[in-house]
Amino acid sequence: MITLQDVKENKELEALIKGAQQQLNEIGYTEHGHRHISIVSKRAGDILEKLNYPERTVELTRIAGYMHDIGNCVNRVDHAHSGAILAFNILKEMGMSVEERTQIMMAIGNHDEKTGTAVNDISAAVILADKSDVHRDRVTNKNLSTFDIHDRVNYAVTDSNLSLNPEDRKITLRLKIDTKICPVLDYFEIFMDRTMMSKYAAKYLKIWYELIINDTKLL
Fold first, then answer.
1. What is the 3-state secondary structure (H, E, C) of 32-89?
2. Per-residue pLDDT reduced to its tens digit, 51-71
3. What is the C-alpha to C-alpha distance for residues 139 and 47, in angstroms, rounded to an integer?
4. Per mean pLDDT, which range of 21-30, 142-151, 186-195 is the poorest?
5. How far apart are the first and last CA of the chain?
């Protein structure tokens, strides 16, 4: 069976990951490269692992998380859809079964808040992991004077932690936002859709979603 390590060693995939980040750098978008996909892969897998999902489902979730943003190599617009098709074909060439490829394709194709939603357990975990990665390390623009609201909000987040309490069936995103850089309201101005998507994804997994910013529970 194809593992996450097999996927990481795939040269074709590696080229797509690098190409995706190159394109996003050119248009001034936040980081979606190895740092981000590694965080999403681990967090998504950890979620289902703590909820006692089968080991193979956890591994497929880690693979989906690692591959979820390769569509940015085609274009930022509709990157979830193009990435899903790219992933399906790469995994086919690697010898993964069509049943497993389909589950991963569904997860990748539904991770963007503009067009997607939780449609299977893997997709729900990837959504929760992806939308939790808000941090100043994702800001590629080094000129603070030219920050747009996305740069400013991400840069203001000095700490981001996603934790799951299996006993209470509750997943919590804790953020530390430097309000000298931007007010908390700016976070909701650009991330409200992502927050609601995360809440629904948690509901899909039959857990409760909680958002805490600067030690204040907001959701």
1. CCHHHHHHHHHHHHHHHHHCCCCHHHHHHHHHHHHHCCHHHHCCCCCHHHHHHHHHHH
2. 999 999 999 999 999 999 999
3. 26
4. 142-151
5. 40
Handedness of CA 60, 61, 62, 67 (dihedral sign): positive
Provide the CATH number for the domain around residue 25: 1.10.3210.10
Domain that residue 131 falls in? 4-217
Residue whose pair of structure tokens reads 């859709």 in the numeric block: 193
Determine the pLDDT at residue 149. 87
C-alpha 31 chain-centroid distance:
12
User: What is the per-residue DSSP string for 150-194?
Assistant: HHHHHHHEEEEEEEEETTTTEEEEEEEE-TTT--HHHHHHHHHHH
Most confident of 48-62, 134-148, 175-189: 48-62
Looking at the 3D structure of the chain, how many domains does it have?
1
The 3-class SS string of 89-151 reads HHHHHHCCCHHHHHHHHHHHHCCCCCCCCCCCHHHHHHHHHHHHCCCHHHCCCCCHHHCCHHH
* Predicted TM-score of the model (pTM): 0.96
Give the angle 25-211-128 at the CA atoms, nearest 5°. Answer: 55
Instruction: Name the average pLDDT for the chain.
Output: 96
User: What are the C-alpha distances in Å from 185 to residues 42, 87, 109, 182, 213?
Assistant: 29, 36, 29, 8, 11
